[in-house]
Amino acid sequence: MQCPQCHQQVDDGEGFCWNCGARLQQEQPMADATRVAGMTTPPPAAAVPPAPSAPGAAETSVLPPAPAPVYGAQEPAYDPSMYEETVAGPIVGTSSVVPPAVPIGDATAPTGAAVPPPAMPPMTPPNGDGGGKKPKSNRGLIITLIVLVVIMLAAIGFWIWQSAHANDTAEPQDSSSQQQTADDTSSDDADDSDDKSDADAKDKKDDKDKKKDAKCTATPDVDVDDLTANGDSLVATLSLTAKSCETGSYAEPNIEITVKNDDGDVIAAAVYDFSKRPITFEDGEASTQIAFNSRQHWQPADEISSPTNAKVIWQTNQKGEGKASGDVSGALGGASIDTSDNERYAQLALKRQLNDDASQTSQFYSDYTTQLSSKKYNMNINGKAWKYTDIYEQFLKLHYKHPNAILIWAADYYNYTKHGHAADYYVILSGETFSRADDATAWCSANGYAAEDCVAVDLE
Ligand SMILES: [Zn+2]
């Protein structure tokens, strides 16, 4: 007979296709008459790719032996130059400007500079001598001058301190009026710092007015706030910082956004067009949501251990493949990345998924579960060759439908290899646990799977 999935010739009486792991229908190893009432109604349309209606001729035997996945062969390679390191905006740094030396030449000492000097030089006025002495007029004048100089230095110290904190405090100009005289009489370059704060304040105001609709093109610094599933999509909530954007809108097209989990694996990537829906910055900060469809992300949302530790790579001038995916509940959809890159991430994800899920298979040595799919790389079903992206997508969709669903490599399990076959294909199990095969079979029909798509299995 022929396998309904891959059309391979198989021996009569086999339970599974040796080539692709599909269930062979004529054999009913688990079936018996003890079905639960109500489970005998014909199941609705299958959610898994349907079996081909018209088995083709001998074309199937030319399927090349698909290579077992090359695990870990390639690491995603990024051109580091593509990654634009975010550069601090021009506003940063003014608060730490230290003013140049202040000329003290003919500056008149401010009369009311009684403020405690934080940067007071370790000089104390020699005025500790009671006052009983009658100083010579010369000496008196010198002491007076020294006192004046000290007071002036104190005022300058305070003024430096004040300038340094001008941007941090709400009222940068209040106390500087005390030094108005000194400021006015000193040369222009002494006022750099004050001028700068003045200019900053003015710039800020101007920017707010003129940049409200201004385009911002700076590459933002991005943090991940959340990664959650929405249907079959992964929705990322991002916090963006771009100080130079101030209050403007980011509307760049062709932005490739790549997400890595905290193990450094690429788990999502797509290309977005923000000209369709610009990101609005407010004081250099913004928040946005983007969606990765089921072919653009490679880890189920519920298995991403610490979403806020995920890293985002933001690349400009990237080209997407085909049309952008639709938005998902307000999260911007994107176009897929280059097909070969996409395939590589899917292949690596399949490898990781097999590793992650291997620990969960032991329970099915004693209990039953249900097999929802088996797919061999590059196998042809109804004219479509199944690639890694297709296989991982099917796993994701089934996992979102059945949160316990796991992926296994058939060759690792005796029940697929016991007849001497290579069993080089992926199998998706529902992960549901049944003590009896009947219950497993009943679960298949209760969940709407056709008999050829869903079958009770116990691993060996
Ligand atoms: Zn087959």
From TrEMBL:
Comp. bias intervals (Basic and acidic residues): 196-215
Protein name: Zinc-ribbon domain-containing protein
Keyword terms: Membrane, Transmembrane, Transmembrane helix
Pro residues bias: start-end ranges: 115-125
Bias (Low complexity): 173-184
Compositional bias segments (type: Acidic residues): 185-195
Transmembrane segments annotated in the record for this chain: 141-161
Region Disordered, residue ranges: 108-135, 169-223
